[in-house]
Amino acid sequence: MKYENYTVEDFLAEESFQQYCAATNEAAIVFWNNALEQEPQIEETFKEAINWYNLLNAQQGNLKEQTELLQKRIHQLGQEYNAQPHKLIRMRGRWWAAACIILILCAGSYFYLKQSPQKQIAKTENAAKIFKNDIAPGGNRAVLTLANGSKIILDSAKNGSLARQGNSKIIKLNDGQLSYQLAAGTEPATIQYNTISTPRGGQYQLILSDGSKVWLNAASSLKFPSAFTGKQRSVELTGEGYFEITHNAAMPFKVKNESAEITVLGTHFNINAYDHESSLKVTLLEGSVKVKGFSVKGERSTVIKPGQQAQVPLSGDGGIKVQAIDVDEVMAWKDGFFEFENMELPAIMRQIERWYDVSVEYKNANTKERFGGRISRNLSLSKMLHLLETNRVHFKLDGNKITVL
To answer: Strands (DSSP E) along 279-381, which ranges?
Structure first.
């Protein structure tokens, strides 16, 4: 009875078990099939370990980059454990072993739960709930509205030239990006404004006529001119977008929203301006930006540096709050991940609503439950919810409605 007392972590630590799951070694497959026949009592834990292996390998990303991120997170967990050992459940007594296993197996997703005041790994026995249906993750979906009101559904449009606006040609590139290309040697004609909108469950990339790049998250829109003229470049954003702005000192770039205005010359920054969040957030990666907030008491402004985030309240008359921020967490959506750091459940579910185009209802749920970790946005909704389930939080999926139990 060699494997009778094996835990999930024990199985995951076995190289032959990893080979069995990956189907890369015929001898390993024969060995574990025989083990299951000889010790049928291990089947439940064995299957649980297989589920974890599959979840951890659901998203294959850049191994070097993801490994560095995982090493950083594991190091932070170790420091926290040493500083506050009374607040950490040991993941069946082996938190460090489990973290190392995740590091070895996972080139994409990793996840751990922060439950105040305790933490534990989500248990797959609680994730065994049978959902009535499943929902695929979001993807590259957007609609382009031209100056005359006509619309182009970008996800179904063929690559190549789509339309002309003034002296700018609109081209859908082979990688799916939308590019506005001003005819060489021409001056912009009359300004024509276009709007690109992503639905819930959509995202899209855009190259403006000046070469600036914009990534739009789900349920977002950007209104912009087909070509920039005059003394400034100006666009209007709702939802969330990441910007890489081409430098032009003679023509500052402005991103406007009903709650704020962001002014830059050439820089990289992210704006989260969803209406149902408590504040508009501007996070700076490179360069320098000026953030001007509007409130009932008038305008307030501040300048932020790389690694800082300015938060502009969407209601009331509070001032602009500036703080240091984990840029990787903010930018995870652009890189294809959800990333949470001590985040309460409702904030996480709002992201899930936007990405999977679902509604969420709470029924006797512990909404103060806190979570931390990184999960691939390429997972189906059922797998995403499996990872989030704990012994105190469960989910029911029926159609496009999630009930949090």
So the answer is: 279-286, 289-295, 298-304, 308-313, 321-324, 337-344, 359-362, 370-376
Residues near 65 by beta carbon (within 8 Å), at least 6 away in sequence: none
User: Strands 298-304 and 308-313: what pairing?
Assistant: unpaired
Contact 112, 91 (CB under 8 A): no
- Beta carbons of 348 and 340 less than 8 angstroms apart: yes
Tens of pLDDT, residue by residue over 190-211, are 789 999 999 999 999 999 999 9
Which tokens go with 240?
Answer: 């969330």
Burial class (CB in 10 A: 0-12, 13-18, 19+), 57: middle
pLDDT in tens, 143-185: 999 999 999 999 999 999 999 998 889 999 988 899 999 877 6
The total number of residues written for the chain in this structure:
405
pLDDT in tens, 354-405: 999 999 999 977 788 888 888 889 889 998 898 888 778 889 999 999 999 8
- CA of 171: how far to CAs of 13, 106, 160, 232, 234, in Å? 50, 37, 5, 24, 21
Residue with tokens 């606006």: 165
Distance CA 288, CA 304 (A): 6
> d(Cα 269, Cα 74) in Å, to the nearest integer?
28
Q: What residues contact residue 292 under an 8 Å CB cut-off, 6+ apart?
A: 260, 261, 262, 263, 299, 300, 301
Packed helices 95-105 and 43-56: angle between N→C axes, nearest 10 degrees: 50
pTM for the model: 0.72
Neighbour-count burial for 6-30, b at 16+ CB within 10 Å, e otherwise? bbbbbbbbbeebbbbbeeeeeebee
Helical H segments across 84-167, by residue range? 95-105
Report d(CA 221, CA 275) in Å as an integer. Answer: 12
Strands in 395-398's sheet, in edge-to-edge order, are 359-362, 401-404, 395-398
Minimal CA–CA distance to 281: which of 259, 305, 309?
309
**Strand, coil or helix: 107:** coil
Q: Mean of the pLDDT values across residues 273-280?
A: 91
